[in-house]
From TrEMBL:
Residues 27-46 are annotated as: Disordered. Residues 32-46 have a biased composition (Polar residues). It comes from Ancylobacter pratisalsi. This is C-type cytochrome, methanol metabolism-related. GO terms for molecular function: electron transfer activity; heme binding; metal ion binding. Keywords: Heme, Iron, Metal-binding, Signal. Residues 1-23 form the signal peptide.
Amino acid sequence: MPHARTGAAIAAALLLLTSPLAADGSGDPAAVSSSQGEYSDKQGNPTFKIEKDGTVDWYTSVGYLRYTANCMQCHGPGGLGSSFAPSLVEALKTLSYSQFLDTVTNGKKNVSASQDLVMPAFGVNPNVMCYIDAIFIYLRARSDGALGRERPENVAPKPDGYSAAENACMG
């Protein structure tokens, strides 16, 4: 697995997307519907649901785990950024779900006289793509200030059918 080079690439791509010209983000994160334990907002974007007692939905918890395994080495703990990659907590304030998905899937490159910033494409990596919604959900909760940097302690039960869908995706 590429390490420092991958991190720099991810950082560069997301840095570009956090400019003032970026979209307005995914909007109101309030969960209005659920399908097999995955919540969606009024626009159909994946979103989190955190109960008053701090219990997070299953996908937010999985997103934390998958972010930590696949993204943290470049984007830092809790998505706060690093010397390799920008803050995803800040990026998701302006980045829409479709932009996030496109960047992670296809990668992005920005080369100038002073920098060569590249985000690699993860579109064929099942360790990322099978969990892309969960990663987005976790980062959305972080970006919206609804979730701290720590691993969620209280997690809703695994939804019926989750394991079968995960196994099918991972092959």
